[in-house]
User: What shape does this take?
Amino acid sequence: MPLKEKIGEMLKRLLAMLLIVVALGLQGCVSPVTGLKSYVDSTDGYQFLYPNGWLPVKVNRDNGVDVVFHDIIEQTENVSVVINPVPDGKQLIDLGSPGEVGYQIGKNAIAPPGSGREAELINAEAREYGDKTYYTLEYTVKVNGQERHNLASVAVSRGKLYTFNASTPEDRWEKMRDLLKQSVNSFSVY
Assistant: This one.
């Protein structure tokens, strides 16, 4: 094989190896939670991931709602954080089991008397992350004849009860389930 052909073959191999290295390097830069953006509130001490393309909503903080993001098209699809005080020294477990806390949140926050809403707690479980306990709660909710699906993550930190809620119309639940579960599981307090 003439020298010119050998150099050409070596350059082709080198280029192929370089492309493989670049491809592997780029693959390492891809986030395992694609489709989500990060939100950090260092003042109130929490963070979470929310779907790309969702926008913040101006909220009245008097009722405990700290932040809300909603889908630009399906505006009733949203995530929110509500912060309420808890008695001094109380931890999440002191407020009850996941089922008990889930029932109370459903009855008093998601579907309070006179709201016209009905909430059914369909799953409640505890998980540990770092030194904190979180309750993950799942509800079906009826509002004005429409069905919705809600996921929540609840934690206590710095004398406050933090409730992260993700909500979508029931007909979009199958499409949004994995993204909303990632979002709810990303919620953490510090």
